[in-house]
């Protein structure tokens, strides 16, 4: 595969870890904060970039955050690294629309619920609190609208009696890890 893939992370990076184990060719791992995901990438010898949110106002001017400037910086790093495809894997910043001027239809996201149900960053606890018996994960093309965009794949996960957010989320991730890797590979091979 000759596509250059960037993975965007903010946290534990277990999805990224699975992609690396699967042999997905990852050209760059970019994070918005210091996190385990960055360490995993470094250990695997993958190029990393930290575009810290704090540089863009967070905690500086009354907690205002310059989303546009932050996103422009990310786009600059992606372009500089000749990235074709961007995969968000637990990336916790909503990017400004400017990224879609360059990567429209080429930003993927994985969400820990069966979209369009339970959008947002509390998807697992929202599903659990709602009392659903089945939830799961969704791989989709990211758009300007949060957790919308064409769905590429979904897999269900059954909620079990006594589930906590942690136990349910871990079972979702067990399904999500191989699914996201496979979808990224197929998607990368399908684009020009
Ligand atoms: C995944 O469940 C993903 O759907 C969500 O964040 C989680 C990332 O997990 N957006 P990890 O940091 O890769 O372990």
Structure explained in plain terms:
- With 192 residues, the protein is of the alpha/beta class.
- Helix content is 36%, strand content 20%.
- The chain contains six helices and seven strands, in the order βαβαβαβαβαββα.
- The protein has a seven-stranded mixed β-sheet with strand order 3-2-1-4-5-6-7, with helices on both faces.
- Helix 2 links the parallel strand 2 and strand 3.
- It is globular and about 50 Å long.
- The protein starts with a strand and ends with a helix.
- The model has no long low-confidence stretch (mean pLDDT 95).
- Bound molecules: 5-O-phosphono-beta-D-ribofuranosylamine.
- The site of 5-O-phosphono-beta-D-ribofuranosylamine has 13 residues, from helix 1, strand 5 and helix 6.
Task: Report strand %.
Answer: 15-25%
Strand order of the largest sheet: 3-2-1-4-5-6-7
How many helices? The count is 6
Q: What is the H-and-E element order?
A: EHEHEHEHEHEEH
Number of strands: 7
Topology:
Blueprint: E1 5-9, H1 14-21, E2 26-31, H2 36-43, E3 48-50, H3 67-80, E4 85-88, H4 99-103, E5 107-111, H5 123-130, E6 134-141, E7 151-158, H6 165-190
Parallel strand pairs: 1-2, 1-4, 2-3, 4-5
Antiparallel strand pairs: 5-6, 6-7
The structure holds 5-O-phosphono-beta-D-ribofuranosylamine.
